[in-house]
Amino acid sequence: MPVAAHNALRHIFSRFLPRNSCLLSAAASRAPHVPTFNNLRQYRATRPQMSTPSEIEAVVSRLENLGISAPALYDTPTLNIAGNPFDLFRASISKTLSEVSGVEADLIVPALEWTLTPDRGDLVIAIPRLRVKGRKPDELAAEWVEKYPSTPFLSKVAAKGPFMQFFFDPKLLYKIVIPEILNKDSMYGDAKIGAGKRVIVEFSSPNIAKPFHAGHLRSTIIGGFLSSLHERLGYEVIRINYLGDWGKQFGLLAIAFAKFGDEAELERDPINHLFKVYVTVSSAQAAEKDAGAAAEAVLALKALLEKEGISEEEKADLETKLVEAEIKAKDLAKVALEAATVLDKDHPLKDAKDIDPAYFIPRPIDSEAKAYFKRMEDGDEEALAVWKRFRELSITKYTTTYERLNIHYAEYSGESQISEASMQSVIDLLQQKGMLYEDRGAKLINFAQHSKKLGKALIQKSDGTSLYLTRDLGAAIERYEKYKFDKMIYVVAAQQDLHLAQLFKMMELCGFPWAKDMVHVNFGMVQGMSTRRGTVVFLDTILEETKDAMHEVMKKNQAKYEQVENPEEVADLVGISAIMIQDMQSKRVNNYKFDWSRMLSFEGDTGPYLQYAHSRLCSVERRAEITHDQLMAADFSLLTEPIAEELIRTLAQYPDVLMNAHRNYEPSTVVSYLFRLTHIVSSCYNILWVAGQELPLATARMALYSSAREVLKSGMILLGLTPVERM
Fold first, then answer.
1. N or C: which end of the chain has fewer CB within 10 A?
2. Confidence at 532, pLDDT banded by 50, 70, 90
3. Active site residue 213
4. What does the pLDDT look like over 165-218, one tens digit per residue?
5. 493: left (phi over 0), alpha (psi -120 to 50) or beta
6. Rounded to an integer, what distance in angstroms lies between the CA atom of residue 610 and that of residue 584?
7. Would residue 210 show up in a list of annotated catalytic residues for this protein?
8. Could you say which of 95, 192, 197, 210 is catalytic?
9. Catalytic annotation, pick one of 95, 197, 216, 547
10. Distance (Å, rounded) from C-alpha 518 to C-alpha 540?
């Protein structure tokens, strides 16, 4: 190993290891022993390890081969110099600027920021962030630019008011970035910030026996993205689907299926049939509720009329209201009876021409559903067998849909899986902590003393029934005991912001040290849908519609269509891309209205456009017929065009993009980057020709295009898409 590299590695390792390490003492007399990753595990909690020593050694060797001295780098372990080109340049800039300015490099690294446009450089630093007293920032910027020495990392350093702008040398970027991408393929951009750490991601969480509709899409694709992103950054990821699989609604579904269900339909199309049953019984239940309320209003008016001491005027007014109420009650009773007989063809009053509205005051359907659910809670084997069958059929159907979206789970959990013992232990713990107070037999927590925004929360009803907060805290405790996670992410709609904030505060007040590791990733809603009245657009329907629409578009170009071996599969993949990208391309907190015209649009920045961009790059590669070895040996000095420089700068940003997405939990961060990348690639086609060029020039350009394709493919897979090679 060259002496310079030897010394650089020794200096780098001194940052990672204790002062009395035998590795350092031995290094003075022989070549340094490179510690394995496990040697550094105990330091990870306080000093995040971004690059392993062996990876750093490889970087040093590569730089030596390019004629660059490794000591020119600031050797902080917080920079991923082995996997992130921007971090490599940050390491050079922070060390050199520290020597020029006297400011600690530790202050410089976090102050180096991206620029909005290439004309402002690749990185920029606002001098006021360095907190140098007694001098004007614009004067310091001009002075430090004047003193900044020429380095192989930068083509230019400029002062712009209180800012310093750093322009990367594109010649060095080509030599570093393209081989890095072509060697790592889709692993380019990976990091190790999560190495040795476990994260749970809870997402999707649909309700049992209801079809997976577009309202679940946001949680599913955001959760899928975050799971994949954390895996790319070194975490062990446990994906959990916490199903809505318990409650009175299952009693409602069970009694309805017994009366209205069809075994043949259940076997043929289980989930849609169960949903049809659910909508029918829900409609009957709602009609029953309206009729019962109207009948109660009639009785209330009659009671008022029987009171002593009312005036003749009051009596006349009440009699008028009573007549109107009786008419309304009879009309609603007829509606309720019609709905009940649709549900139950053998209803005892099916042939009745007239019915007393008071029949619906006890809410027969509601009462029967409550009784059935009580049987489930009491462990009735017959009732639980029906519930278990509905649950298993639902999971089987969900799994098929998830596979279509490239989603998989380690665990299908649910409200039913949280034991009574866990929930009781939660109640006991809250009681011991003095957090509960009683109100008419119910148990509540008053969060107002900790945060006014959190208000009060019901923990247990007066009848002893536990609520969502109790179950969710019980679930979190059981998960920590099982997985010992380092972070748990709940991907849940913004409508549940208060609920999650109360849950996290409960964890904190209970004294759980892992309470600080809870993250709520919220999102806006898909508006204009309802599951209760049947006015819902199912995801399976959307997938089929978009597949068919994309298939028709593909057929319009018959020549290309004939080259696609599996057009229906490709149409399905491109259709799924259309659905997922239209959902992910804006900030996740934004609501959007469900709109078929938007869903099926193939113009502008869309999923089909990304697929087209990828397939076109594949086509360029196929026609060029240049091998991987030839690409790795390309002469990058032939890449002199400004558009090529813009593309290589953009490709260098990809690892940073993943880190930014990790910080903000935003799929749109990656989506926006991919659109910017594909727009630049599109601009390259008119300038950077491959066909008809001399082999050295064609090879250099093809290496750049192949790198772009690898990054595009990587980003698409990260988002949950399956890139197609022909369309």
1. N
2. very low
3. yes
4. 999 999 999 999 999 999 987 899 999 999 999 999 999 999 887 777 666 889
5. beta
6. 13
7. yes
8. 210
9. 216
10. 32
